[in-house]
Specification:
Rossmann fold; five-stranded parallel β-sheet; 11 helices; globular; alpha/beta; four-stranded parallel β-sheet; 2 domains; 9 strands; binds N-carbamoyl-L-aspartate
């Protein structure tokens, strides 16, 4: 029996602690249950999941598709370059075409903010009950990544019971290009909801001071915050200040394709000031894990040696956890 109330998953700002608890618990069950090949779970048999990715993706698209298959759903994948978009068909009409073919869930990624939210709204207006899962919209939100990062951290801190409460009182440092990162924004909602304190670290051009107030107000269109007590967010420019109290650190890709102009003097300089290495981790009070949502610019956000060090670097673990997290999301919005 679930208390799930989201027809779509667009943004983690609307998630309550109970929602996080439900997703993490279900993902943990899926992770521990063999569900490949002949042993795939029958939960979404007869369901059609359609992925519509208008932006490149390696991890998110394939793990949503794999997650759907592990639950026995049919999977259909839209490719913008060979579609009728080039003939002028709108995004809504393209989506309605897939709905007409029977899509139960549309998993959507787009470079513009709010596309998934608008699509969910338009589909409801058109009387369709297809669910929309946001797989990344502009700089705004990437809920499944925020959830898999949360799960990876909870699992690291408590292998047996990876619940949201495990994060309470922990300090998580997020370093690098915060401004252009929808992953950072989703992580801010998720981590603070669970009572973690977040230290954001980066140069002023990639981390405006105002980020410290990021979760103080619910986003436009949302009346209230479903979480009563959130952790704190602080901003620092110095990597040593972020690492010293941290229980975990997450690096973010320099998202050059989303930058308006060249906001950095050089990649070498960025690596010197904000790149994670074995050397700089000595500043931490204890050994801490390193996360990165990928794709990584090897040697820029994280040194090559650190990226290869599986005892500290959880990047592959994040990728693996993406599958059960997306199985949980597909299951919850489909049933
Ligand atoms: C992220 C994205 O697309 O927002 N990647 C991902 O989904 N794993 C982060 C990025 O592009 O840097």
């Amino acid at each position: 029996m679930t208390n799930w109330r989201h027809r779509h998953v667009i943004d983690l700002a609307s998630f309550s602690l109970e929602d996080y608890r439900e997703v993490l618990a279900l993902a943990d069950r899926f992770r521990e249950t063999p569900s490949t090949g002949a042993r795939r779970l029958p939960a979404l048999q007869g369901h059609l999941i359609t992925t519509l990715f208008f932006e490149p993706s390696t991890r998110t698209k394939s793990s949503f598709e794999l997650a759907a298959r592990r639950l026995s759903a049919d999977v259909q994948s839209f490719t913008p370059t060979s579609s009728s978009l080039g003939k002028g068909e709108s995004l809504l009409d393209t989506s309605l075409t897939y709905v007409a073919m029977g899509a139960d869930v549309l998993v959507v990624r787009h470079k513009a903010t709010n596309v998934a939210a608008q699509l969910a709204h338009d589909l409801e207006k058109a009387g369709e009950n297809t669910g929309v899962l946001n797989a990344g919209d502009g700089l705004h939100s990437h809920p499944s990544q925020g959830l898999l990062d949360l799960y990876t951290l909870a699992k690291y801190f408590n292998q047996k019971k990876p619940e949201p409460e495990v994060l309470k009182g922990k300090t998580i440092a997020i370093v690098g290009d915060i401004l252009h990162s929808r992953v950072a924004r989703s992580n801010l909602w998720a981590l603070t909801a669970c009572g973690a304190n977040v230290i954001l670290c980066g140069p002023p051009s990639l981390l405006p001071e105002e980020f410290q107030d990021f979760v103080k107000e619910p986003p436009p269109g949302q009346v209230s915050d479903p979480v009563l007590n959130r952790g704190e967010i602080s901003v620092t420019r110095k990597l040593s200040d972020a690492l010293a109290p941290a229980d975990a650190v997450m690096a973010l890709r320099l998202q050059k394709e989303r930058m308006r102009e060249n906001l950095l003097s050089s990649l070498d300089r960025f690596h010197r000031d904000y790149g994670l290495t074995h050397e700089c981790l000595k500043l931490c009070k204890r050994p801490i894990p390193v996360l990165h949502p990928g794709p990584v610019n090897r040697g820029v956000e994280i040194s090559s040696q650190l990226l290869n060090d599986k005892s500290i670097c959880l990047v592959e673990e994040q990728v693996r956890n993406g599958i059960p997290i997306r199985m949980a999301l597909l299951y919850l919005i489909s049933t």
